[in-house]
Design a protein that fits this description.
By secondary structure, the protein is α+β, with helices and mostly antiparallel strands. The chain is 36% helix and 22% strand. It is built from 7 helices and 8 strands; from the N terminus they run αααββααβαβαββββ. The chain starts with a helix and ends with a strand.
């Protein structure tokens, strides 16, 4: 990443961090910035989260000195990560009308994790997300073994979890990512 791109990304992240202080009470941007400066791989992942429409922001920290948690905080599931089936196995099994890729595959390429259901529900405590769209979440192994996947959204003031076949994809369904820095 070029120096100007890095500086622009850091400014975008700082502005978002300051604008949404309620997402990370008690955390200091200078400490986040110092951690990012030591981790160019994380910056690249954050850049990819940003360019695909995720609007990543710090949503917490693991323990008092552990990694900072960045998550996609765009109001709707990121626009550059929609119309994806669940994982690479589902993509390979699809014979006709294949999507461009899979949510798990793209998350891996970006160096981020897909949210699980508990993480998705925690994110929803910080704001109202996916009022018109939905997001794939990591399915438990026993559900995936049966060909199923899970996705979540927020409707009627509540967070809902649904199931679907892993080969399915929709223009309004994507995924939200998590990055530990």
């Amino acid at each position: 990443m070029k120096t100007t791109e890095r500086d622009q990304l850091l400014q975008t992240l700082k502005t978002r961090f300051e604008k949404h202080a309620e997402r990370h009470k008690g955390l200091d941007w200078a400490e986040v910035r110092a951690r990012l400066a030591k981790n160019p791989k994380a910056l690249e992942s954050l850049r990819q989260m940003e360019v695909t429409g995720g609007e990543p922001d710090v949503i917490g920290r693991e323990k008092s000195s552990g990694p900072f948690l960045f998550c996609d905080c765009s109001p709707e599931t990121p626009t550059g990560r929609r119309s994806l089936c669940y994982d690479r196995e589902a993509l390979a099994a699809r014979k006709e009308n294949k999507p461009q890729g899979s949510a798990m595959g793209l998350a891996d390429e970006m160096g981020i994790e897909m949210l699980d259901e508990a993480q998705y529900r925690q994110l929803q405590e910080l704001g109202e997300f996916d009022l018109k769209t939905s997001s794939w979440v990591v399915a438990p192994k026993e559900i995936r073994a049966l060909g199923g996947g899970l996705f979540c959204d927020r409707r009627f003031g509540r967070v809902f979890t649904y199931h679907n076949g892993v080969q399915s994809y929709y223009a309004s369904r994507g995924f939200r990512g998590l990055l530990r820095v």
